[in-house]
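User:
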Amino acid sequence: VIERAKIIFRNNATQRLEYLEMKDESRINFGASAVKPKQNGEVVQKSETEFELKKSDIDRLTSNLPELLQQARAVPRMGPGGTIECFSLADIAAGSIYERLGLKRGDCIKSVNGEKIDSPAKAMEMYNALRGGSNSIGIGIDRAGRDENLNFSITQ
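Assistant: Predicted structure:
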């Protein structure tokens, strides 16, 4: 049962009714919530997972690879059989391009444009995709155990 400020459910283990109560009239959002478009440096965030930026800004922000690599630290997350599942962002510098692109500490990058990122060479392909001539880029991530897609529209 869902009421205005209370959710009542049955605990399967004990068969008792339990509830969650919201005391401050906060709103609960299920799924991705809408946000007003906001400017974050060169990046315009249109929703929680939709972003827009100019090709000239991408070129400028990604022109210095050594500097770019120092703005975040990614470590491989190993899966069964020793395969790389994704690259987890262990640290992200405040104000870095990664933060402006909507990535967060703990996000695990799984794919770029549908192609699985399972090696450092594939991660380099991600970098090249950002610098390429595409008008959209999709980054698949694992965020707190949920698969999400961050979508970037590239404008002239």
